[in-house]
Amino acid sequence: MALALSSRLEAVLFAAGEPLAKARLASLLEVSEASVTDALNALRISLADRGLALVETEREVELRTTADAAGDVQKLKESELSRDLGKASLETMALIMYRGSATRGEIDWVRGVNSSTAIRTLLLRGLIERTEDPGDKRRIRYIPTIDALSHLGVATREALPRYAEFSQALATHAASDEQHDS
Prior knowledge:
Blueprint: H1 5-16, E1 20-21, H2 22-29, H3 33-46, E2 52-56, E3 60-65, H4 70-82, H5 87-99, E4 102-103, H6 104-111, H7 116-124, E5 128-132, E6 140-144, H8 146-152, H9 163-181
Antiparallel strand pairs: 1-3, 2-3, 4-6, 5-6
Helix pairs in contact: 1-3, 2-3, 5-7
């Protein structure tokens, strides 16, 4: 049995964890933008009296928690902030620090696993932030924050252990990947 378009939209928006362009949703789901609009309306109705809501502009839409759930979500965030960073988050932060910036795809490729949870943890703690990818405005790049430097006890990225060696290795690795892709 095929899922209804509104259910498919809900799944994609949940998995993305960030705003998606309506045109991109139509393309991903292989339907018209009018169908996406109709399915979003159906999804909005089905989400009534639940902990999730659609937040949208003319061009983008995101699945978010409702204002009514803010207290519970805040407790979750506080409990996550009180825990130590795990291995996955530390690996992800190191990659971003030594590269200067990275997309989720780049992080996933280097680590060999999905890094969504690690990225989310680092974002919640304010150790990385999102920025627009200058090479592709549809992608998000993650960059380290001042808090990340402070958390690691360094004044600049260049003060990281073996910074020149690791950043050069990552740059060489990225360049060889680009050559293989072309």
